[in-house]
Write a structure and sequence with these properties.
Blueprint lengths: L2 H17 L1 E3 H8 L3 H11 L1 E3 L7 E4 L10 E4 L2 E4 L4 H11 L4 E2 H8 L16 E6 L2 E6 L2 H19 L6 H13 L5 H9 L7 H10 L3 H8 L1
Length: about 220
């Protein structure tokens, strides 16, 4: 390559790094070349293509600073070290510990789930299953999916038990419940606060419901 061309290429690369991301038309202008030549330079230099903005933006590989999920954002432009959005979503789901809800995928890729998830309904590398009223995306690999699903179920169980009273508090609740079967949830809460059991009606309702006592409490109060 002639010295003048090398100088132009070096200058273009310096500007590219300074701007961080650009479209091919901008590079062609920096190179004073055709679009085809600019595309060849992008391939030679090693770049990533954005998975949003219709894939129009490019970044040099030594400029992108990917996070632990292999994703990087520059202003409103999004990049993935795994390639386009399809490859990125498939990787994120397959590498997740407990599969991913649509909202979780959206949070990771920083896109509204409704704008792209419909394209994955028949994706052979993913398996979608409704659990507790929500669709969870798992790997289509049975061995991976089995582990992911078990972790998701364990996660749901832990979340459902959040806010439950300690064993000592549970004894106090049950004693007060037996002594005052006609009290409403609110009245029982006030009673329990006198015993220094400080938690809300929601936690108490969850606890009584878990033990099959919530409906009985409500019915006897009517």
């Amino acid at each position: 390559m002639p010295p003048r061309k090398l100088e132009t290429d070096s200058s273009a690369q310096r500007t590219f790094k300074k701007k961080k991301v650009l479209v091919v038309e901008e590079l062609a202008e920096l190179l004073a070349s055709s679009i085809g030549t600019a595309r060849r330079r992008l391939k030679e230099w090693g770049t990533y293509t954005s998975y949003n903005c219709n894939g129009r933006f490019y970044v040099l590989k030594d400029v992108a600073e990917f996070d632990s999920h292999g994703l990087w954002r520059h202003r409103t432009v999004l990049f993935s070290q795994y390639g386009n959005l399809k490859k990125t979503v498939i990787h994120l789901v397959r590498s997740s510990a407990a599969g991913l809800k649509g909202s979780e995928i959206g949070n990771l890729v920083r896109l509204e789930p409704r704008s792209f998830l419909s394209h994955f309904r028949n994706e052979p590398q993913l398996f979608r299953e409704r659990i507790e009223g929500r669709f969870i995306h798992f790997s289509s690999d049975r061995a991976i999916r089995t582990k992911q699903k078990q972790k998701r179920l364990d996660q749901i169980t832990r979340e459902s038990l959040k806010g439950f009273p300690t064993d000592a508090e549970a004894v106090v609740i049950l004693v007060e419940r037996i002594k005052h079967p006609h009290l409403s949830i609110e009245e029982l809460c006030r009673k329990l606060r006198q015993r220094r059991c400080r938690f809300g009606t929601e936690e108490l309702s969850n606890f009584l419901g878990h033990h099959g006592l919530l409906k009985k409490t409500q019915d006897t109060h009517r």
